[in-house]
Amino acid sequence: MINSIVYRNIFRSRLWPLTTRLSPRFIETRTFSSSKAPRAKDIKMPSGPPKHEMAYFPEMTTRLPSTSGEFRRVLWTGLYSQVVLMTVPVGGDIGDEVHTVDQALTFTSGIGKATIAGKDQDVKAGDLMVVPAGTQHQFVNTGPTPLILYTIYSPAEHSAQTVHKTKEEGDEEEEKGIDRAPDWSRKSQAENEKAGLVRSDGKY
Hints:
Elements: E1 5-6, H1 18-21, E2 55-56, E3 72-77, E4 82-88, E5 97-98, E6 102-109, E7 111-116, E8 119-124, E9 128-131, E10 136-141, E11 147-154, E12 163-164, H2 167-175, H3 189-194
Parallel strand pairs: 1-2
Antiparallel strand pairs: 3-4, 3-12, 4-11, 5-10, 6-9, 6-11, 7-8, 7-10
């Protein structure tokens, strides 16, 4: 039988940083915590391919807090996609960039301006924006509160254990090649099936 993992949002004190509120808690009593994690890495997060079990993040569009101490945190990395939580501070932006992977962004708090291939679009909580691979994009926080979103890359764009407290930290590690998607997340469907990582019968 395939075990299920439930990721529960932990909302206690408003003074707790988002890193604590959203640390996943496993049913098997395993917990994730960033309190002792080294810079730009949460060593408690799995670094290898995910197990064949549920990853559940309840109320992601309604219960995320309006403040956060982290610019970027990887929540889950799979063979073909990756879920990342981002917080753009007031007056900040994610940087004008181009990814070689598809990206879908869902905004949960704040307001901002998206620029995709030179075209501007205002965004707010509840909006979904899709950026095709190889497309220039930039997101700027234009509001009085942090712009919070979760994004899905397909395939993965960052290390499975990435945590960046600031945009500058993330930029530095990307430039140095420290923050890169794991090799196993860039394999083809045929390669994963041959290696037994994906089976059509669902038995492992």
